[in-house]
Amino acid sequence: MNTLNLIGINVLHIFILAPMLIYLGNRNVPQIAEQTLVVMGLFIAAYHGYKWWNNPHWIRLLHVFIVSSLLIARGYIGRNQHIDRALTITGSIGIIYHFWLIWLKYQ
∠ at Cα 35 (34, 37), nearest 5°? Predict the structure, then answer.
């Protein structure tokens, strides 16, 4: 994967995906959105599990076991203090991590 594609992935995580996790950890969402989270979590687990199987990397396992599990739990259980806090922390760490990756590429 070339550097431009990786920068695009980082920007996507910084401005859309990680803020979405923070938003989900702090707000109520409609029932249809919660059902969508379950599907999204299953998709993330399947996609990153398949990618890990072909090219093992720790970040893919993080997506399979942490990110997808939090989305499925939030969608299935609904608002829960512990899940919401974990979503907020995961989103915050995601923003910091992806900014750090961009910084490393351009230093």
Answer: 65
- Give the count of beta carbons closer than 10 Å to the beta carbon of residue 58: 7
27 three-state secondary structure = coil
pLDDT tens column, 50-87: 999 999 999 999 999 999 999 999 999 999 999 999 99
Query: Residue 93 has which token pair?
Result: 């760490």
Within 10 A of 77 (CB to CB), how many other CB atoms are there?
11
- Residue linked to tokens 């938003």: 23
Matching residue, tokens 């923003």: 95
Q: How far apart are the first and last CA of the chain?
A: 20
Which tokens hold the place of 16?
């859309």
